[in-house]
Amino acid sequence: MDGGTQTSTPGAGAPTVGWASGPLGVVQAASREIARATAVRARAVAEFATSRPASADRAQGERGAMSAERWAARAEVLRPVSEWATPEVAIALNLTQQGAEALLAESLILVHRLPATLAALESGVLHEGHLWHLIDKVAPVADDVLRAEIEAELLAWVAKRNQVTSPAQLGDKARRVVAKRDAAAAARRL
To answer: What is the reported pTM?
Structure first.
């Protein structure tokens, strides 16, 4: 371990276990860079989605428009986004339609509903394995202020632990915090 002097991610502190030397240190630095790049990608995908408004699409029922059933099945966060954004992302990134749609939705959620999570990902506090639990459990909280408070509480918990936090541990903590802070809405979701 080198005391936290190695990192390729600007502003990132050492991992809670410190920086390893040799190949494992390279793996740690690469993982931090992957997390940072994931955040950069999420911001860029969300910006792209915003540049493709659904208002430019053909009206429902018009020849060539997405079917009403398919439109209704899309994630709510994608409703303001053109139906053509998904195939564009799929082609650009060599993804399936389903994978492209999931990336669009996740990116929009991170940018617009979980901005502190996105910053924590970029700084190396979280890695991409942590995201699902925050997207699944915290992002659905309807009240913007409450959601931001819950997000801040969870990120502070991760930072204060000063030990490795697995995605499962974060998911368990998120479930408890959301149930406690957003009990009424949590009951409706069950």
So the answer is: 0.83
Domain boundaries, the chain: 22-189
Spatial contact of 139 and 109, defined as CB atoms under 8 Å apart:
yes
Query: At 109, phi and psi to the nearest 5?
Result: -65, -45
Residues 130 and 122: their CA atoms lie apart, in Å, by 13
The encoded tokens of residue 24 equal 């494992």
Q: What is the pLDDT of residues 103-123, one digit of tens each?
A: 999 999 999 999 999 999 999
Cα angle value 140/187/157 (rounded, 5°):
55
Please state the rounded mean pLDDT for residues 53-66: 81
What distance in Å separates the CA atoms of residue 42 and residue 161, rounded to the nearest whole number? 27
Rounded to whole angstroms, how far apart are CA atoms 103 and 135?
12
Residue 11 scores a pLDDT above 80: no
Half-sphere exposure in the Cβ direction for 82 (13 Å, CA)? 16
DSSP states along 155-185: HHHHHHH-S---HHHHHHHHHHHHHHHSHHH
Given phi > 0 = left and psi -120 to 50 = alpha, else beta, which region is 163? beta
